[in-house]
Amino acid sequence: MTEFETILMQAAGEMGITLSERQIGNFVTYRRAMLLWNRKISLVSLKSSTDLPIKHCIDSLTAFPLIGHDSVTLLDIGSGAGFPGIPLAIMGSTREVTLVDSSRKKTSFLRQVAQQLDLTGVTVVTDRIENLMHHDGHHGRYDVVISRATFGLPRYITMAAPFLSPGGTLIAMKGRGVDTELAAITEPATGAGLVLVKRHEINLPLIGDRRIILVFRRSH
Fold first, then answer.
1. Hey, what domains does the chain have and what are their CATH numbers?
2. Distance CA 83, CA 207 (A)
3. CA distance 186 to 207
4. What is the pLDDT of residue 14?
5. For the purposes of burial, counting CB atoms within 10 Å of the CB of 131, is it exposed (0-12), middle (13-18) or buried (19 or more)?
6. How many angstroms separate the CA atoms of 106 and 125, rounded?
7. What's the pLDDT at 93?
8. Does residue 180 contact residue 207 with C-beta atoms inside 8 Å?
9. Which has the closest alpha carbon to 6: 209, 216, 205, 212?
10. Buried-exposed string 150-159: b where 16+ CB fall within 10 A, e elsewhere
11. How far is CA 99 from the centre of its chain?
12. What is the pTM of this model?
């Protein structure tokens, strides 16, 4: 077993997540593709052996218990190298995952990875989310909209809310300093019909970095 697999399994176990052999294999394939592409384009910054398994893969899975095991449609805004959308798709709790990024090189990588991992429910869109906001095919379509610290909270809420289905869930994955952003969201959240229903705080296994996940529910 490789160091990557050992760290991934230990960290997942500490969060109460059991990974199957197939899921571990998919994470290994994902890692291999990422390292290969990372030589050509800047996908992720990797400074230690824990960065990829913990700061990216496991960090993405901190949202997994908040989504649940029901089959849902999920939109990942500003997906980049596929976080958190690809790890969540690997876990199999989603019926459809749409990954959106404006970088053509990154979306080319995402399409290849989805094909390699046989993630048939994954769709990759190359566009700015500001443009997609005006596309009727995406309005009100998603049970869950998620982003990993891509935007400031007020802007994220304004951009993401139109994609949510009635009663849908908006998830913002943040680190320290989120309280300053929270103070500025009352008006945009109210205008979008969003209510903060959960604040989930967790220290990443093995490295202890603090993560704060905010869960909003669309009331109308």
1. 62-218 (3.40.50.150)
2. 19
3. 33
4. 95
5. exposed
6. 10
7. 67
8. no
9. 205
10. bbebbebbbb
11. 9
12. 0.93
